[in-house]
Hints:
β20 and β21 form a beta hairpin. The chain contains two helices and 21 strands. The strands form four sheets. Strands 1, 3, 4, 6, 11, 12, 13 and 15 form an eight-stranded antiparallel beta sheet that branches. The chain has a seven-stranded antiparallel beta sheet with strand order 2-5-14-7-8-9-10, with no helix packed on it. Strands 16-21-20-18 form a four-stranded mixed beta sheet. By secondary structure, the protein is mainly beta.
Amino acid sequence: xxxxxxxxxxxxxxxxSGKSFSQTYQLTGNPVTTTGWTMVSPTQVNTDxxxxxxxxxxxxxxxxxxxPINLKYCDKWxxxxxxxxxxxxxxxxDGIAFWYLANPPxxxxxxxxxxxxxxxxxxxxGLDTYNNTTTATMSKVHVAYGQVENTTDNNNVEFFNxxxxxxxxxxxxxxxxxxxxxxxxxxxxxxxxxAAPTNWILKITIDGNIICNQSFAPSGTAAAMTVGxxxxxxxxxxxxxxxxxxxVKIYTDKVPILQNSxxxxxxxxxxxxxxxxxxxxxxxxxxxNPSNYTFTYYPLGSSTPIANPxxxxxxxxxxxxxxxxxxxxxxCDNPDGKILLVLAPFKAEDxxxxxxxxxxxxxxIFNLNSANVTNVPGxxxxxxxx
Length: 386
């Protein structure tokens, strides 16, 4: 019993410790705290939720995270939120979108596009309640990973069809209607597809029910994305609803590191003018358990990794970027580590060593290695009798 209790407590404290270093963006609280987020009117805070649109016609609003996120360092990421679409009448629309876009909306985008920007580039998950073909109320999930024109009623996410880059659920109106007075819980989890590393395997659940679980390839201009912005939007047209979200959590947790930089001076080889360093010797300065991670080293500004980090040669002050990858694949890579290599000229000082007379024998034993003639790392001292 005591062993189990100790085990559970260890896990508990580990989780607390890990969470303090995690990169989690939230929209929570009462009233909701929106520091670090930008809202596009008429989106506003309403007690413990974000009201993306009021229940009136021809409205469009959005909220996005200010920090651009580079997902190329993430093998996995996850977003969860609660949504509600309610109205005092039965002609409802148009729905809510969650997205990761290179060009998030900066102004209102009305109607069937769910508030998403025109020619949106990136990943869009739409919760759609208005069928633009039949004008009927529906409850469908759409996924688009590419460039969505979104300039008319028939080229938005509802009509995005690119093989391997799109998804449209059946109408869930009879089993999981989106419209209602209660909040519903959504989770979107993504992980790199091992069979196609440029793809994301997306799993989307609503109230625990799996709606989508498949691989998506970036199509068109989305394939060249470097960074994007997470956010939410909604819109109304002739049909309307109040669109709301709350309890938003975006998990893009990076490997926690002990410090962002390490600096060391080196004496150059007098013949070649180059210094030499084993970059892997710095690993323990960034994480306490280096064996759990994979380290890749790059000259600052270069995308080409250093081929032989155990014997890196440099002939000027050099900054090396360290990318640390979690071998378990649970955390995003951390590219924030820097090794600052300083090529310092050799400097030595005379030192005097004194020892006691060896029992008045007229001799003494001296430890010549104790003479601290230089503090330059990597120096090998040789003694010569004059």
